[in-house]
Every structure is written in C-alpha cells, then in structure tokens.
User: What shape does this take?
Amino acid sequence: MQLEALYVAQPALTAQAPILAIAVPLIGACAAALAPSGRAGWMISVVAAMVSAWMALAVAGEVMREGVILYQLGGFAPPAGIALRVDAMGALIALLIGAVGTLAAVFSGHSLAAEVRPEKHTLFQAGFLLAQAGMVGLVYTGDAFNAFVFLEVSSIGTYALVAAGERRDRRALPAAFNYLIMGTIGATFYVIGVGFLYGATGTLNMADMAARLGTLDQNAAVQAGFAFIVAGLGVKAAMFPLHGWLPGAYAHGPSLISLFLAATATKAAIYLMARFLFEVFPDGAAFGDMFLQWVLAPLGAAAVIVCSLQAVFARELRRMIAFSSVAQVGFIFLGFSLANASGLSAALFYMTAHGLMKAAMFMALGGLAISIGARRLEDFAGVAREAPWTAVAFGIGAASLVGTPLTMGFLAKWQIMEAALAGGRIWIFAVMAAGSVLTLVYVGRIIEVMFFREPAPGAPRAKESPVGVLVPLLILAGLSLWFGIDASLPQQLAQAGAASLFEVRP
Amino acid sequence: MTAPVLEASFALNVALLLMLVVLAAAVVWTRSLLAAILLMSVYSLVSATWLMVMDAPDVAFTEAVVGAGISTIVALGAILLTRGEAVRVSWKRQVVPGLLAGLVGGLLIYAMSGLPDFGDPASPANSHVGRAYLETAKRDIGAPNVVTAVLGSYRGFDTLGETVVILAACIGVALMLGFGPRATLAPPAGAPGDHHVVLRVTAKMLVPLIILFALYVQFHGDLGAGGGFQAGVIAAVAIILHALVFGLRETTAAIPPQAARAVAALGVVVYAGVGIVCIVNGGGFLDYDHLLTPQIEAMIPAGLLGDPDKPHHWGQYFGILAIELGVLMTVSATMITIFYGFAGRTIDAIAAELRR
Amino acid sequence: MNGGELLILLALTLPLFAAAMIYAVGRMPDVRETLTLVACIGLAIVAISIFVRVGQGDPPALTVAEPLPGLAIAFRVEPLGALFAVMASVLWGVNSLFSIGYMRGRREARQTRFYICFALAMFGVMGIAFAANLFTLFLFYEALTFVTYPLVTHAGTPAARRAGRVYLVTLVGASVLLFLPGIIGVQSMAGSTTFTPGGLLNGRVDAAAGSVLLLLLVFGAAKAALMPLHGWLPSAMVAPAPVSALLHAVAVVKAGVFAVLKVSAYIFGPDLISTLPAATWILWMAAGSIVIASLVALTKDDLKTRLAWSTVSQLAYVTSAAMLPMASGLVAGGLHMVFHAVAKITLFMCAGAIYVATGANRVSEIGGLGRRMPWVFVAFLAASFAIVGLPPMAAMWSKFLLITASFGSGEWFTAAALIASSLLSLVFLMPVAFRALFSPAGDGAGGEFVRPGGTPVTSLVALCVTAAACVVLFVAVEPLADYLAPIAAVSFMETAP
Assistant: This one.
C-alpha cells in the first residue's frame, strides 16, 4: 500500500495540515463541550477525529515526498518562535493516533451509553478530543517546552476520563488518582529536565538544542536534565518499574479510554523519549550510551519477563491485557537499546503494531462490556459462541500480540529480533524469545476460555456487539492482518524515521 | 560602590530562602491539613516576594495570585470533604520514598554546578534566544512588555496549549464533581442566625472593585506585569467571594455552572479562532500579522493609541488583545467551575449520592 | 500468470476448496466422500504435473506477497519438494479410500470435521513442499500443526485431549523457541531465507554460529521426532488409524524430516555441513535415537504404539542422512523418506484394518488371525520386510545407500546403528505377521468379527495397493535417485559404491 495513493488534499490545505491535525480536535473539543446533547457531542467527536486523521495522512504523504517538514507558528522562525517539525517517525505515530482516535470515536457512540452517565457524555467527548489533540501536538512539535504543554493537554483530561469509569467499576477512582499523581510527577520531572537544558543552552527548540548540546555532555546540568527527562517520560511511557499507574488505569477506566490510552498514550511518550535519546542529546555521549546499555536494556528485559508473568497470573482479563502492555513497552525499549537505525525502525514498527492490536483487543472487550459486566477471565467462557465476530476480532488482535505469522505483530517481533542478532545482542534475542513464549501462555489461556470453554450455567450471556462497534473493531483487526501481509506503509515510515534520526549527526 | 548593595540583596535572599525552608519543613511536619494549607499559602507568598527580589514581577504576580490565592481556596474546599488530620504513616513505609526524594534532591544539587551564575549576562539563557527577544520584540511585536510579547506572540502556541490545559482541568473537575446534588454554601439572607450583615455589605462593595482590578490587570499586561491568567484568577475570586458570602444559590442563579463551562470552552475557541483567522487570511496559525486584512487595517485610525507617527503593529496588538481575552474567559470560568465543583459538596451530599 | 504459477496456485487452493465443499455437503456422506476422492485425484494430477515439469528443468515458481523486503511468501519447486508432494497427494488418495471403510465401519463421530482437517492438512503439506524459503516453509509447517490438532483429539476423550496438548506444546514450543529463532538467525546472517542450491549460508558463517543455527533448525523441526523431542509421536497414537497412517507416517512426520533435508541441502549445503561440529553431534543423537527407539518398540504390546516407535527410529535415519558429511546422503535420505512412508502407511492401515474388523489392537491378541484375514497380514508382512530393509522391497535400496554413505564418510557409528536397528526391527515386526499367519491357534483364532464381514473392501484395496507399491518402487529406484540427484549434485551411479 503506497501512502501517495491514500492521500488526497489540496496543496493549500496540505501546507496547513500539521497545525490543522492539532487545531481541529482542539476546537472540536470546545464544540463538544458546548454541544446540546450527547449524540451531538458524539458526532462532533467523530468528525473532528476524522479530520485530524485525514490531516495526519496528508502530513505523512508530504513527509514521504519531502522529508522533514517544518511549520512555523506565529510566523516566527525557530528558535525564537515555536515550530512544528514532522519527520517520518512523527508522521507514523500521528497516523496511528489519528486512525485509532477516529475508530475509537465511532466506537464511543455505543460504549459511552453503556458505561458513562448520560449527562456527562458531552464533556467526556470533549476530554477525549483534547487527549487526541494533545498527543498529535506532542508528536508534531519541535519544541521541548511545547511538548510539555501538549503532554499535559493529553494527560489532564484523561485522568478524569479514567475516573468516569466509576459507574461500572468503583476501583476506577483510586486508579485515576494513582494515574494523576504518577502522571504529574512524570510531567514535573520532564519540565525540570527541560529547565536544566534551557539553562545550559538558552533555547527550547529541539534542533537548536541538539546543535548546542554537542559539546556539553560533561556539563552537570545537562546530565541531570537527561536523567529528569528520561525518568519523567519513563513514567508516562510506563517504563518498568515506573508503570504502577498503568494496569489500574487501563483495567478500570471506561472502555473507550482504555482502548485509546493503550493504543496511543504510551506510544506518544515513547516517541518523545526517542526524540530526546537519539536526536537532542549528544550522539555518543557517555551517559546516553550508558543509559541505553545498562538501564534501558535491562529494564526493558525485566518488563518483558516480569510483566508477562504478571499477565500470566492475573485473574481479570483487562488487567492481563494491561500488564501485557507494560511487557510490550519492554519489547519496544529493547529495540531502542540496540541504538542503531534497524533497531529503532523495528521498535517504531512494533509501536504501530502494538497500538493497532491492543486497540482491537480493548475495543472487543468494550463491545462485550455492553452486554456483560464480566471482569474475571472465567466469566468470558464461551463468548465466542454468543459474539463470534467480536471474539474473532479479539482473537486476531491476540494473534498479533503473540506474533503469529501473517499478522503485523509477527513482522514487528521478527524485525526487532533480527536487529538484535545483527547487533550481536544474543541475550536480547533470548529475552524476546522467552517473552514471546510467555505471551503465548497467557494469550493461549484467554483464547482457550473464550473459544473452547462452555459458558458456566446461569452466567450472563454475552451478546454480539452492535454494528457501530463491529465496524471499527473489524477495521482495526483487519489492519493488523493487512499490515501482516503488506507492511510497506508502516515499514517505509518507520525506516525513514529511524534513518532520519541517525543521520542528524552522522 | 556596588558591593554593599549586593550584600543587602544577598542577605534578603538568604532570609527569604531560609523562610521557605522553614515553611516547607513545617508543612511536612504538621498533621493538621488546615495548617498545612495555610502554610502552603504563606510559602507561595514568600516565594512571590523572593521572585520579586529576583526581578521577575510577572512570575511573582502569577505565583501570588495562583499559589497564594486560588489554590488555597480550592484546597480549603477540598479539606471540607475529608478529615482534618493526616494519617500517621509508619517510618518503615517512608524509607523508600525518602531515599528517592534524597536522590532527586542530590541530583538537583549536582545539576547546580553545571548552571551559569545568577544574572550572568554571558549565560546561554541571556545571550541566545532571550537576548534575541529583547532586541526584536519592539520591532516585531510593538508591545512594551517583552514578557507579554513572548507569551502572547513568540510563544503564543504554548500559551494556547496552557489555556487548553486549564480547559482540560475544567472538564476534568466538571466530570468528576460537576454533577449531583449539593448544599447551599451560606444561609440565605435574613434567615435566623444570619450575622453576616457587615460581611455582605463589604462584599457588595468589594466585588465590583475586584472585577475592575481584574480588568486593569488584563489590559495592563501590554505594559507591565499582568495579563489574562492573572486577571482571570482575580475575576474568579470576585465571583467566589460572592458565593461565599451570599450563598451558592445566589451565585449560580447569576452564573449557572453550565454557563461557566461554556465560557471556558468559548475562551479556547476565541484563542484558537484567532489562529484560524490568521490562516484564512493567508498567514500561518497565530501569525497575527495576518490577523487583519489590509482593508480593515486601513480603517484603524492612526492615533488610536496616541502618537500617530509611531509605526503600529495593529495585527499583533489586536491579536494579543484577543487571545488575552480568550485566556481571561477560560481561566476565570475554569476557576469558577472548580469552585462550584467543590463548594457545597458536603459529606452528607456525597453520602446521599452514593445511596442513590 | 504462466502455467507453473497456475499449477502451484491450484495445488494450494484445491485442498482449501475441497475443505469448503466438504463442509458444504457434510450432511451427505456419499457426496462428501466422493468429493474427497475427486479432490485427491485432482491434487495427485496437479502434483504429478509439477513433478514432471521439475524433471524437465522448468521448475514452477510463484511469489504471493512480500510483507517486508527480503521476507516473502514465495514458492519454488525443486526435486525433493516435487517428490514429497507427489508422495503425499497420492497417499492421501489411498488413505482416503481406507478412511471411508474405516470411519464407516467404526461409526466414528464428527466425520465431516475429519475429512475437512485432512484436506486442510494437505494444504499445509503442499505449502511445505513447494516453499521457496524457510519463512514460507515455517508458515505452512505451523498451519499443519494446527489443522492436525483436531484430528489427534478426534476421540474427545481425556486421554485424547492430553495427547493433543502434548502434541501442540511440543510442536509449537519447538518451532517458536528453536525453529523461528533459527530462521531469524539465517535471515540476519544471509539477508534472506531463500533455499539456494549449494547452501545459502555456505561461506557466510563460521563454525560456531553455523552449529548453533543447525541445532536450532534441526531440533526446531520437532515433527521429525528426533530424540529427545519425540514424545508427542507415540502419544498421538490415540488418533484413529487413518490419522496415524497418513499424518504420523506420511504427512506430518515427513514434513519434519523434509524440513531437515531442505535445511541441510539448501540452507547449509553439503560443504558447510561437513565442516560443522554440530552435524556430528546430531549424528550421534540420531544414532542414539535409532537404537533406543527400536529397543522401546520391542517392549510395546500395543500395535500402533510399536509402529510409532519404529517411526521414531526410521525418521532418525533420514535426519542422519541429512547430516552426513557426504552429498549422496541427501539422496539416500530423500529416497528413504518416500519408501518408509509407503511401507509405514501400509502397516498402519493393516493395524486399522485389524482393529475395525476385530477390535484387537494388541500384538498379543492376534495369534492365528492371519487365517481369517490373509490379505491384511500378507500386506503387513511385505511392509515389515520393507521396514527391515530386505529385498525385494524398495526400502532396501535407501537403507543400503545410507549405510554405504555412512561408511564412506567414516561415520561408522551411524552405520552400526542402522544395522543394529534393522536387526531389532526384524525382531519386533516379523513376529507380528508370523504369529498371525503361522501360529495355529491364538486369541484371534476363533470368535466372530466385531464388524460383520471383517475389514471393509475399500480399506483392503488401499492397503494392498501400498504394499504392492513397496515392491514396484524397488525397480523404480534408479530413475527416482537420478531425479533427486540435482539436490546433491551427484548421480545415482556415483552414490553406488
């Protein structure tokens, strides 16, 4: 699939596409907050998310043609003004956010009705759109402080959105509180780090910062700034062992939020971390290499093993998948820790694959949650019989998670493992293989219960998801399959993104 | 000649910082939440003073308004809903957090060695972009207050983002606390046991004055410390004062919660709308030089702001004016929404809601 | 699309289409089974056409998709694969004939699912046979595991489910933990996984890396049942006899040794293999496998289990052949893969025929039974001859070539193991037929058939055909060996001493 074939827009519109991808959901959020009814809010949400995704597509097409694109805000050239700077990596992640956001918005029509009080729907949609706008902004911006602002835009709203799950599950409240505290600590650390870098370089523009940091790797403020930024973003990205907020937030929040966060929130933070690790901080600085080798790689490995085991022993289905998300972040960090273009490209591809598969899995559970309030794994016994389409879509997501051939997840694992071997890191390869087997164990458990077990007598019967859920769900599952057979679109973007990061300072 | 002055400022710095340390220790030490909130308020006030000493009036102003003012009110509202004493935590559970805090503190101190001296004119922050702002702000923007030029124009996109953060907080609080039954805050006027006549009379006089002051701060931002953030908070304080004295019912009759939420959203619409208008008129997002079409610009009387001979950046001028209005709307409406969220949510009201 | 591409596409889609049709007409057993037979004949014709094309030096090739650069789902037929496909498709037909009698005679449940899974298994086998690279082979190899799982658990009893779990865990576990890492290793060393004559890795890896990869790939192909990953095979004998016959003598296990042969011939190449220490280690383990499995077979009273252990032993022959530091070993291995398949399917069909007629499944129960079921036991005797390696059975040739190749390359212990195993199989197979045919009276001598009329006619025809094939192939060995010669770049005359 070629990007150029997908992308249609006027040149004048294309020039403004990066900012429109952010501004449209932003204004859409205000419109949703002002909407007269939940239904109207939902429609605004769908339209705004769709336009944002379309603009992200236009940006991605432009990036493939032109390379990195710059958009100056306020007409001031950086570093005085703020500029959006989109490379292939950002284009890919924004495309993921746009696509998942649009499908999630469509899905929310049915899901909110079942899970959130009707009078809250308009505000809920507003918060959801703000989160989407924030993430796209975070990915597109070329300014370190602006990234902090968008990090907060995308987070502040979601804390309350997680809490809105309380109607179905009271544990959403402590989970949201936990998320709020951890998220705020993460954001604060990030901004402290940016402050140190500003003190040392006098600029906030990332490219300018990178140019000025080149000789400053012995500076104490730069080193401390590095530590604060990495730790802060590590919290946001659910880097082991800073992931404590994630399982609760994903497991107890409303389905819409679980699905959107699982697919995109950690990805945006990981993306920003990659920008700092490979672009802003001096190439070959001792602390950077040390971090990749001795911190990121072991933590990634620990996440893969420990959290996969936690998923194996978890009793609630959504918790299992949430733990799996932390483990998958570990896989992505293992790809980063290879510190070369093929490792980074593989990790970016993995991020996309994981976003799509987890979105499909959480959306399928959301579809089931409309009819049954099941939490424990055993309560899902035999749902494949009552809701075959939903179960099949879940199964496709799960297959991709395991890394079954012909799914996107397989190609993702394949690429990281190949890059690990090529880089001579046998132990990373071994950890990935072990992690894959653990994944197989817990996914196998889920599939066995869902597809091959008889429902317990007297248990509530699941119903097939309504069409409004099935359509986005099957599209998501279909994408996991399609990109498993023809991965050229994400692959080209991931490769170009990794290449551009490693060419910044050859 | 300069040495004694330096010493005086040094002594002042030491004194203020010592006060901050003592206050922080006291906040950690005390187990009364009320005392902790009031001490935090004092802490903010002292830091505002300290920021003033460091010649950062804009930041000092914001710290005073937000830190000492509105967050104290919100925190006070919050402790009404919980008990007044912190739970005692055994020292064993504090070891790991303590170590982590020590680690972070150590890292901060380590980082200090890499930072330039305070006020060093050759430091990166003062020589690179910061210096560029000082040199070009007058030419590009025309606003006398460089801080406003930076916040409103050079980095106007950040300010938009911050306004959206405020809106997000508004939506978050409204989602969590904005619905459900609540008690009125103050007894209605004339009710038996109403001893607040003096309070009411004073408040009636104060509310318009506070709002007037807010407007002053709003429009003065071009010239000195001030702007939409501070003005928004001050305006909100006027409304909150009204609610405290006259009761929530009276206030919500004048400004219903839905209206407050709507204004918060509209503020962002105004801000982002300015950006969109700039795009429509052929510029980039928030490029105020394209805010006004040449036809409109030609209609502005040259002497609108006095001196007709001076070249004016009308786009920049009206752009900053409009976005500051947006900030004012969002900030004040959000503060009111947050206050509404907490106010009147007594334990009884929550219990009733849980029973429902 | 040229003829070659069309043929490959047909070979892959025909079983799928057959499966869909069988599902559609599942309620009409006669139509269903006719359809199966038609599909078998069709597939055999396609496979033979491909076989002929390869012989004419015009190997069909087809690329389906390329998810990532250097990672394609592609097919390209070479002699070994063509032979494997012909063997599997023809034996599928014979076995289907047998199945009709067996399944009806036993009044088995879920017969439609049974035939569908068989068709799907053929889809997997065709993909394995024609794969142009390791990745494609892996895809179909895994598919084969999953579509045969319902056949292993066909009975639905707890024992069957347990066997099914062992089956899945061993096969999937080995392929995920060993085979797949091996493939990724090959990809990262060579930039592709394409099967290349002379060896893809030849000259690209050192002895250490090559050894690791070889171990991963050979043990990862757990379908080849090389000890210690053989446990699934005897336990899978809970499946109905036709499943044991086609899958656990022909399709599944042969897919394992086929993968080993392909890896040896096209990924490593004979030159590289001869320098790898791991090849010698695997030879030792295979030799151990050969002897130990034969010894265990001696102790088993259950006829199918005894045959399964014999299969473990015979599969190790082929693995040894692939690891011999001599190119002619590959030809011997390829031939043995076919000849053993024909002989072993005969034995399993005989066991099934005995079971369906009398309900007996133990060696100790069949004394004197030969008087009443002469055709079955003559066929059994003929196939036993083949397994032992006696003339005039085709398997004699492959065993002979194998032993000479082992001696020729100085791997005396492999030769010794082969000879020992032949003697042992003489001991554990011959008594079965002799006891039934020549023992005047035994448990099976009297009494009635469980099924009136004894073995169904279709089943009888099927096993006689394969028994005859054992003899016929004896004379056809030279053309076959010459056909396979390109894989090792030697001719039959060179392989003979």
Observations:
- The interface with chain C takes residues 405-406, 411, 414-415, 417-418, 421-422, 429, 433, 436-437, 440, 483-487, 491 of chain A (CB under 8 Å).
- Chain A has a mean pLDDT of 89.
